[in-house]
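S., here's the first fold you wanted:
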Amino acid sequence: MPPASSRAVDNLDDDDYPAYTMGRAAEMLGTTPAFLRALGEHRLITPLRSEGGHRRYSRYQLRIAARARELVDQGTPIEAACRIIILEDQLEEAQRINQQLRTAGRQSPPKTSA
């Protein structure tokens, strides 16, 4: 197992590492803890919990929360903002898979008839 200091550095580069407390996350986003709780209630983000049960957020989750805040600030209801972000994510994933399939199709050898 790598030394603790090496693991700590790896965690700094990990987008999914739950490094931020709810208070710090809310401060960074310029929002309230209640807004972050609402995103969890609408299943947009699910923070990990510390041993003491406190919510912890990753950088990836903060980017999603920032997108939600952007939509809400533009007047979109929070429920709709969460649904929009989920659909955007699904579309992005489908486009990524589609591109992989196209690339794989170009790389396969042509079929020969018997």
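And the second, which I think is the more interesting of the pair:
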Amino acid sequence: MTRSALLLCAAVSLATATPALAQTVTNPASVTAGTYAIEPGHTQIGFSVLHFGFTWYSGSFSNVSGKLSLDPKKPAASELSVTIPITSVQTTSDKLTSELKDADWFDAAKFPDATFVSTSVVPTGKGEATVTGNLTLHGVTKTETLKVKFLGAGTNPIDHKYTVGFDAAGIIKRSDFGVTKYVPYVSDEVRLHIAGAFEKQD
């Protein structure tokens, strides 16, 4: 077989083995209205705390579930509910990951889930909004606010489901929820960074 033929075969093989790129829209007005469910495989809740004033130390939660009601023509009417399993907490230290589930920290045995339920959505710009809601963590409910940015929407080329994605950020104080171990040496302020993927339901 000639070199050209080999290259052609390799190109065909690569093309058939690689999924097509998603055809996403970035204009929020073009998003399909409806009810969406969180896609847990690509939804992550990251958190960071200042460790003894030296470094920002990060961890994450996964296996998140929840629903989003979305209408791009009426963004202020959107509704979001999220459930976060505390046992999904993960850090780069196995010892710390285990400790965070104990009674001195999140007490996962007594409070297995954290939840966030939106109470208002205020558009602040194209594809951006402030989402306020009730966060329940460690048995305590407080009103918290997230800054949310729309990233894109379209059909996922792998599972063929219509998906919409957002990026969100916020700051909470863990002492507000009774999680006070090592404050102030490990900061009371907790920075949140959330990657949210939602799949449209039929």
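Why I say that: The first helix runs from residue 3 to 17. The first strand starts at residue 34 and ends at 38.

Talk tomorrow,
H.
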